[in-house]
Amino acid sequence: MTAPTVTVNTIHTDAVIVGAGPVGLFQSFQLGLQDIRSHLIDALPYVGGQCVELYADKPIYDIPGIPVCTGRELVAQLQAQIKPFAPTFHLNQEVTKVSRLEDGSISVNTSTGQHLVCKVLVVAAGVGAFQARKLATEGAAELEGTHVHYRMGDASRFSGQDVWVLGGEEAAVAAALKLSHQAQAPAFKPRSVTLMHRRDVFAAEPVLLQAMRDAVANGHLQLQIGQPIALLSTAQHLNAVQVATPDGQTIECPAQHLVAFLGLSPKLGPIANWGLALERKQVVVNTETFATDVPGIFAVGDINTYPGKKKLILCGFHEATLAAFGAAAIVHPTRKTLLQYTTTSTELHRLLGLV
Ligand code: FAD
Asked: How far does residue 50's CA lie from ligand 1's centre (Å)?
């Protein structure tokens, strides 16, 4: 761990939570009950981790006191619960570097240049940072960020261009539809919008699918079944995409931009370099406070390991509760960390903004 420079833009805070999945969100609540403010950082552009990314509309049956809710509903409830503590979210950025400053505090850097300094760091990074699966097609890597994209971003850059949207999931269908609607507006007009998938089968809400089929029928959206086999460019400018069609033909179609939605895959990524003891890519913790072997750093949820570990949301919530007690001993060293009930404690009611 080397000492980085603290810049004027550095945010100083009690706690930073890496990961805004269900456990990271609940961690923020438990830290709040200990009078500890937190900043949450997530690589995704939204909170909820696996619950939102992998099973947003599927039912969960084993959250205590909630007989059934979807992943999205659970996350909405967690967001409502942490509101009194007003945590700050830094989304769409990965925590890349963690190091120790001379005064013992912890320095956290993110992929967007954000720098935070905290007294405690809680790693709630689940199965790792979700990152867009990249297109393996020849020529794609060189054009990434200019002509090949993995997020829609600012759609005005597609004005007057032939745009191809790749993928068969909801994100691809929604993006193609959005662009095709925009193609009808005079102020913003891609020359053409094409949705391409290897099969004529799409996984999206029925309403969205119908809207997509309607857009194809009325000529606002083109549908191409096939796989991209090469991107043809000159001087770093995409001109065309070569497509292998299901009937064995290879066709060449004009394209200046390609937006690929090929799903997200989790990557442990930089966490492996933070000096934490790991066992089979999981952070080793003690089960008293869920502290790692590095002072001031805790790990909760799917990212940690200990004898008997179960990767369940309920278990992550328990871990976050004990980690908050461990964090309180560091953030408020002179205070006694007593167990208080939210039902009866006026101090907790004050922290929750109820009195
Ligand atoms: P995650 O939900 O994985 O969230 C971690 C977050 O950290 C992610 O958003 C990630 O982007 C972010 N992150 C990671 N590294 C970084 C970094 N370096 N910088 C910034 N951000 C980072 N559990 C149950 O209890 N009941 C169920 O019914 C259930 N059903 C499931 C169904 C499916 C299909 C799956 C896949 C899982 C299910 N689970 C269920 C398991 C449950 O989803 C996980 O236990 C839970 O999501 C773990 O929460 P977490 O907050 O620890 O991690």
From this structure: 4
